[in-house]
Amino acid sequence: MNDISLPINDNVLLFLVLLLIILLAPILSRQIKLPGIVGIIIAGVVVGPNGLNIIAMSSAIELLGGVGLLYIMLLAGLDINLLDFKKNKNKSIVFGLITFIIPQVVGTFIFKLMGFSWTASILIASMFASHTLVGYPIITKLGIVRNRAVLTTVGGTILADTLALLVLAVVARSVSGALDFNFWISLAILSTIYFFSVVYLLPIIGRLFFRFVDDGIVQFHFVLAVAFLCSFLARLIGIEPIVGAFLAGLVLNRMIPAKSQLMNRVQFAGNSIFIPFFLLYIGMIVDVEVLLRSPASWIIMATMLATNVATKFASSKITQKIFKFTKAEGWVIFGLTTTEAAATLAATLVGYRLGIIGDEILNGVVLMILVTCIIGPWVVEHFGKKIANENAGEKFESAKFPHILVPLSNPAKANYLLSVALILKGNTINQISALSVITAQDKLDEEMEKVDMMLNNVSDYAISAGVELNTLKRIDVNIANGIHRTALEEHADILIIGWNGKVAAPERIFGSVLDQLLEQTSQSVFVCKLEKSIMSNSRISAFIPKSSINEPGFYALLNVIFILSKGLNCPIYLSMEKDSVVMIKSIIKNTKNNVEINFQVLSDDDDQFKQFISSVKKDDLLVAFGARRKTMSWMPFADRIPKKLASSFENSNFIIAYPGIFYDTDDSGVPNNLKISG
To answer: DSSP assignment of 30-88, as one string?
Structure first.
């Protein structure tokens, strides 16, 4: 019989207890109106070596705790909209300096007045200057990661923590060695080499990897390997690993769409395993008994806690006033930055090992961490809900396409095609349906079996991306007829269909099926030729003929392209004539699209499509607006666009976008035919 004495030694029982804590602690904490993450921290205090001693502080716990911290920073980098981040970079710099300088200066003088040395005072103050985004998982759940105050805080966190850890490195060096010229030069050179290597080399490696590797599990392992490689290299050159993890997330950001299978896997692994272990680890290092053994720790902890709360509150309020944030946004900044954990622990342990600080500071820090990790998440959740409610009416003015229909026939390209629909899935998309039409009457059972297998696979793919897929099968003598009838029956608003790039007859645009489909349907249609995952595309290049902007459904479909750009976190380049550029700019000027839009003006005196082709880059996702025959935007050249793209970009991803057709309504407002909103 195995020994079940405490602390638990049996690995199976130990893991069971850990899972039960992660399962039950959030549920119980919510019953008393506390955030779920606070429940895990408190549970760590209770079961840890300084509590009931149910779980010992083993190397495995420390490893998982460290991984969880890095995971939080990785997710912070992946979740940021880079365009929003760029727009807020100046705010982030200002806030980062404010939230570092005020706590650093005030803390240094307070602890110097309490009798500590200048070295110890500076080190202790650096603990307040830094902070850990313990409340960030709450921000993610509330869906306000792109709020301006949150973006400012995340960017400022990296600057503040980097400066605080630089102070730690300098203080440690002053005790263990000389702060000579070689120290500063080596730190500057290594940091510069590291930054440029990650920012410029990693995207090249990442896009090559995603271009040739489609396996979702392998892609997940690649993301983890990159994050921890960047973290390790950061530590080698004297930078805190959390900076490396965040930088890795930012670099991988544009390669991993928010609504993708890979992003869902990354978030699931972090939120379900790694981040809870980090919160548990924080609780386990707390020693409540120290308050009874050392009354001086009360004074130290109270002073540290008061200094932390006061300086972080002042920093958040100053930032709120400068940038005219709302009251709720100011409180969220405070809640996110008042929590202390990783960088504070790093500074404390280094200072303790070097003899700069003693037991009273060490114990005071640990208790301050516990209190701030309870206060901070509560403030974030309370005021974050107010921000979520305030922003409810400020969503992106996107086209209303409540139902996407994705006809599938090629199992090898099915996931590529579906990924386009998954990225578009959002507030304006209520349902995605995958359809397969069967025409082989003599081998019906065999074809049904193949179709079932394909639909099951794409359904699994969608579920792994967090989206429920509606799968449809139809039997018809003609594929185009089957798709058309299903689109009518299911009230589909946009069709996303694949094309192999081959045209059998010169007089056809795509081939018999697609040509018939464009003739029969009135929905907006994306004809997609996808040779690789769209995660490998770094920007969208769109060709817009002058006649397209006169089509009634044009602007609705253009908004869908903007949604695709936003979902891929990549800029969009619109190639069009000067008059069209002026018109588009005037229309989108006041929209809150959060998309980086650039324009290429096509001249009248040359082949415009040739101009567009010359501007295309290797990793572009190409989009060309097509036109159905007998519509006002049709011209003979429109029929040649697909063939020209297929011949010029054989191995590239591209989409031919056909706006929906609008029909007149009768006096009662009921459509005379199917009316498509876009």
So the answer is: HHTT--HHHHHHHHHHHHSTTTT-SS---HHHHHHHHHHHHHHHHHHHHHS-HHHHHHT
